[in-house]
Design brief:
This protein is an alpha/beta fold. It contains ten helices and ten strands. Helix 4 links the parallel strand 3 and strand 4.
Length: about 260
């Protein structure tokens, strides 16, 4: 059996692989795979999540390639599948916080024969269960929320995205009330600024990624939703799944409990 060689094309999965004790088996990552920074410096980069350098990745000869339906392109996956002696492609698509439990199980299914992986996975699973139990919907006053991920144009998230499902755990319901389907641009609707529902938004969250909103954007965002409380939020904690979800659920409870500014 060949030595395990993992290529992760998803930032959340790269972090999860390391958390499970598989850093030495990680032979490729994207430029967006930045956590944990202290352990990734010498792991080769193979482009971005959407523009993978396939020739470089193939030269690194992975045995497993980790991908995500939302974050990677279908043609990238199909190109890898067409290689001679193609690696095993592990496809992920967590859409709700509780899907992290199945994600950890999937990693154990793939890599559980490696020393220490099952033990680390069990500890992570317990931490996830604890945080999920503490972050239950139906305990707070429902709020209408706009979560912005981009500007020029303003872009937000559909209700069937991981981010929207995270927010719903504290009874924050994203607007617009649309579903974007399993994949594609419809999962991230454009907000034009003249939608009637904008007046009813109570919380306007400006994410730190993929667009890094800062204090200089608060006034323009407030004009978009004049009746909302506007705040900057940590997009990594609210959108990264896997190991990051433990801290993400804690952070979600903290911001939901914070008093109005």
């Amino acid at each position: 059996m060949p030595a395990l060689r993992i290529a992760s094309l998803v930032p959340s999965l790269t972090e999860l692989v390391v958390a499970l004790g598989l850093r030495d088996q990680l032979i490729a990552r994207t430029g967006f795979c930045i956590h944990p920074a202290a352990l990734l410096g010498d792991v080769p980069k193979v482009g971005g999540t959407k523009d993978v350098n396939l020739s470089k990745l193939q030269r690194l000869a992975p045995t497993h390639v980790l991908v995500n339906i939302d974050e990677n392109r279908r043609d990238t996956v199909e190109a890898i599948r067409a290689w001679p002696d193609a690696p095993r492609i592990v496809v992920t698509h967590p859409q709700r916080p509780d899907d992290n439990l199945a994600l950890v199980d999937l990693m154990v299914e793939q890599f559980g024969a490696q020393p220490g992986v099952r033990e680390r996975a069990a500890a992570l699973t317990q931490s996830l269960r604890d945080e999920l139990a503490l972050t239950q919907p139906g305990l707070r006053l429902p709020r209408q929320v706009l979560y912005l991920i981009w500007r020029d144009p303003w872009m937000t998230v559909a209700r069937d995205t991981y981010i929207a499902a995270m927010l719903a755990r504290v009874d924050w319901h994203t607007r617009p009330d649309v579903h974007g389907g399993a994949a594609g641009a419809a999962r991230y609707p454009v907000v034009h600024g003249d939608e009637p529902w904008l007046a009813g938004v109570q919380q306007l969250l400006l994410s730190s990624e993929p667009y890094n909103f800062g204090p200089e954007h608060l006034a323009a965002a407030q004009a978009l939703c004049p009746n909302a409380q506007v705040r900057l939020v940590d997009g990594e904690l609210l959108s990264w799944y896997g190991a990051r979800a433990v801290a993400g659920l804690r952070y979600l409870r903290e911001i939901a409990a914070a008093p109005p500014l």
